[in-house]
Structures are given as structure tokens and as C-alpha cells.
């Protein structure tokens, strides 16, 4: 199914170039809240009827270590070279002979800045870290998918129902199935790597560019989450100037649209029967050709089987 990006998703920023073979299908687990119409207005009317997928801010994701990184300037010589490169006028980089005296001044200033960041860890580094973390948390958006619809961890945590009195019913929600093709690469689809090692962004390393850092930071989760078998799509949300500061254009997150999606809607194995009939009717009103299935818990071995209803 072809994936399209809305105009407000940046098409200029490639967050990753995945080397992984895409799965043929991916699954997105959704929580149903009975106390309000969120499932009707949001899941049925938009995600199912229109094929929209919402990308949340990174700071809203469940793993507190999401997007963490270590900032490194390397050794004193590499840091000096880095700052000298920044301070050198553009014309000098085009082989115009530099003024020897100015070159000496630039090198001295570069050495002073390198000394500060390597040995004193001064305000410069603190400001860089603050800016980079703000960018990661506020302007990178992501949506998560799972490889298998019978993942019991995902049904328990994300495919649940919250009933009228606030009780959580694991497995009472919905799972949306998507057919994947290479157009998903435009939304930076890649597999999440599970590791307890925090990625290091080496600012002074010319080979260690922003794309490499972003991919390391936003497609990594701690090993405690590896049972999710997650894939994710991500985007950099465009910024606009507002009184000399960058602000979000909306708090609702970015959107991608997937033609003819989802390919199947799967009801959780603990969704109440009367509610199952109600939501099935609402789905048919919006999408007459929708394929609906349900998850069944096999008591003999404790596994989940997906069975088409029609």
C-alpha cells in the first residue's frame, strides 16, 4: 500500500536509510476508551476510514530513555581542528591564501574553545546539549508498529480497553494491519535496535554526521522493550519563526496517509461482545469493504490466533 506524506511533513530530511528488508505487513495496536468518543472520532473516522497514521512527539513516548545520547568532542586536537574549521571564513576554504596573522588568531581561539569543552565542559557544551535534546524531544515525530499481530505484550500494553469506570482490560482494544512496500522508506521506516548502550554523537568526527546520530538516537530502545519487536516511521516536524524562537505548528503531531489502509482490523480477544458489534457497525458505515478479524486466545497452549470474521 502506497504511503503518502502530508505537506507539513518535511520531505527534505532523511532520518535514516534502512538496510533492513521491510516486512510484508506491520501492525499498530490501539487502545479503546469507552468513556468518550476517542475511538470513534480518532480511530474509526481517521485511522481506519482515512488511512491516517499519527506521529507523536518523541518526548511523549513511553520509554524514558527514548532519544538519549552522549555528546562527545573527542580529544583536544580533534576539537581544535573542529573549531578552527568553524571559525575559518568560507573564502579561505576555497583555497584563497589566508592572512598568516589572522590564521594564528583563529587557531588560538580554536584552541581556547577546545580546551573549554574538553577540560572545563563549559556553557558552550551545555547549550549544545540543551538545544539538541530540545530538537529531539519536540520536533522529531514517530509512530510505532509491530511485526506480529499475536504479540501478547503489545495486546496487554497498547491493545487494551479502558471501560466506563476506568478499569483497564488488556487485549480489549484493536490492532490495525498494514501492508508494507518500498514507499514506506519515504517516512523513514526502520527496525528498532534494542541495546543498553547509549549512542555517542561525536561532533568533531566528520564521518559521524547528523543523520548517523539521529538514526542511532531515535531507532534505539533499551533491551527491556525488545519483546515489542518494533518498527517505526519518523519525521522531522517543520519549525516556524515566532518572535525569534522555534515553535511547533501544532501539538497534535504529524500525519502520514496510507492508501487503502488499514488492510485489516483485528478486535482484541477480550473486547466485550456487545461493543464488538457496535464498533463493527461504525467501521462498516465509514468503510464498507473493511476486512475485520478477531484475536482468539487458544486455551490449550496460551497463544493467540487471528481469525477472519467474514
What do these coordinates show?
By secondary structure, the chain is α+β, with helices and mostly antiparallel strands. The protein has two domains: 3-68 and 141-308, no CATH class; 71-130, no CATH class. It contains seven helices and 20 strands. A six-stranded antiparallel beta sheet has the order 1-17-4-6-14-10. It has a five-stranded mixed beta sheet with strand order 2-9-18-19-20. A three-stranded mixed beta sheet has the order 3-7-8. It is elongated and about 80 Å long. It starts with a strand and ends with a strand. Residues 2-13 and 240-253 have low confidence and may be disordered. This is DUF2971 domain-containing protein.
Record keyword descriptors for this entry:
310 residues, alpha+beta, 2 domains, 29% helix, DUF2971 domain-containing protein
Amino acid at each position: 500500500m502506497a504511503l503518502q506524506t502530508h505537506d507539513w511533513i518535511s520531505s527534505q530530511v532523511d532520518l535514516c536509510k534502512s538496510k533492513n528488508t521491510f516486512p510484508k505487513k506491520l501492525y499498530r495496536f490501539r487502545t479503546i476508551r469507552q468513556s468518550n468518543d476517542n475511538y470513534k472520532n480518532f480511530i474509526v473516522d481517521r485511522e481506519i476510514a482515512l488511512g491516517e497514521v499519527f506521529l507523536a512527539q518523541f518526548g511523549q513516548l513511553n520509554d524514558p530513555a527514548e532519544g538519549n545520547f552522549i555528546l562527545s568532542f573527542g580529544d583536544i586536537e580533534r576539537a581544535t581542528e573542529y573549531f578552527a574549521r568553524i571559525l575559518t571564513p568560507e573564502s579561505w576554504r576555497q583555497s584563497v591564501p589566508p592572512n598568516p596573522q589572522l590564521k594564528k588568531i583563529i587557531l588560538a581561539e580554536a584552541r581556547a574553545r577546545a580546551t573549554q569543552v574538553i577540560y572545563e565542559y563549559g556553557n558552550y557544551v551545555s547549550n549544545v546539549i540543551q538545544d539538541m535534546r530540545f530538537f529531539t524531544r519536540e520536533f522529531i515525530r514517530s509512530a510505532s508498529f509491530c511485526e506480529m499481530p499475536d504479540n501478547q505484550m503489545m495486546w496487554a500494553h497498547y491493545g487494551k480497553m479502558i471501560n466506563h469506570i476506568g478499569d483497564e482490560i488488556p487485549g480489549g482494544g484493536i490492532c490495525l494491519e498494514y501492508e508494507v512496500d518500498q514507499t514506506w522508506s519515504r517516512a523513514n521506516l526502520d527496525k528498532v535496535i534494542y541495546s543498553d548502550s547509549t549512542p555517542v554523537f561525536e561532533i568533531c568526527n566528520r564521518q559521524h554526521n547528523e543523520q548517523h546520530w539521529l538514526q542511532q538516537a531515535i531507532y534505539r530502545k533499551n533491551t527491556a522493550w525488545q519483546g515489542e519487536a518494533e518498527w517505526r516511521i519518523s519525521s522531522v516536524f517543520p519549525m516556524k519563526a515566532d518572535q525569534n524562537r522555534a515553535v511547533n505548528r501544532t501539538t497534535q503531531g504529524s500525519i502520514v496517509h496510507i492508501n487503502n489502509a488499514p488492510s485489516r482490523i483485528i478486535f482484541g480477544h477480550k473486547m466485550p461482545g456487545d461493543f464488538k458489534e457496535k464498533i463493527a457497525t461504525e467501521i462498516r458505515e465509514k468503510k464498507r469493504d473493511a476486512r475485520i478479524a478477531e484475536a482468539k486466545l487458544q486455551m490449550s497452549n496460551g497463544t493467540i490466533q487471528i481469525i477472519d470474521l467474514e
